[in-house]
Amino acid sequence: MKRISPHPVGIVQGSCVMFSDFAHDGPMWTGSGPRESRQAVKFAEAFAAPPAVMVSISMWDADRKTNLRADISAETVTEAGFDLVFRTWGDTRIARVRADWTALGALRDDDLWELD
Predict the structure, then answer these.
(1) pLDDT given at position 108
(2) What DSSP string runs through 42-111?
(3) Are the C-beta atoms of residues 53 and 7 closer than 8 Å to each other?
(4) What is the pLDDT of residues 68-116, one digit of tens each?
(5) Which conformational region is residue 56 in: left (phi greater than 0), alpha (psi within -120 to 50 degrees), or beta?
(6) How high is the pLDDT of residue 116?
(7) Residue 28 — φ and ψ, nearest 5°?
(8) DSSP 3-state assignment of 29?
(9) Which residues, in sequence order, are CB contacts of 5 under 8 Å at separation 6+?
């Protein structure tokens, strides 16, 4: 278990369309094999330490003629942000994906200070 005390806790949420590859014949729609879409997310206010970040697919549009394969994750999580990453592989054809995310962690508290 990650203890956050004595810091105040912050939570921030967001949503973003990661790609709409059907609109311009992009690689998620027309490609095959391993493919990746990566989007940098910056928090409006930095956390005191890297927060816990949960991600999910909130909308996806896929071709029904192929197998659905998807992997979504938060990578390189720092106090200031993270990379939202969607991957697929094989013959999967994904037209578009929207992802939602939630970050939860300790905030800086100006009333807490330490002497060196």
Answers:
(1) 83
(2) E-SS--SSPPEEEEEEEEEEE-TTS----EEEEES--SSEEEEEEEE-TT--EEEEEEEEEEEEEPP-TT
(3) no
(4) 999 999 999 999 999 999 999 999 999 999 999 999 999 987 766 665 5
(5) beta
(6) 56
(7) -70, -25
(8) helix
(9) none
8 Å CB contact between 105 and 10: yes
Q: Which single residue is written with the structure tokens 């949420």? A: 13
The continuous run of DSSP H or E covering 15 comes out as strand 9-20
Please choose, from the candidates 77, 92, 91, 82, the residue with its C-alpha nearest in 3D space to the C-alpha of residue 16.
82
The pTM of this model reads 0.87
Q: Are strands 94-106 and 81-88 parallel, antiparallel or unpaired?
A: unpaired
97, β-bridge pairs: 19, 60
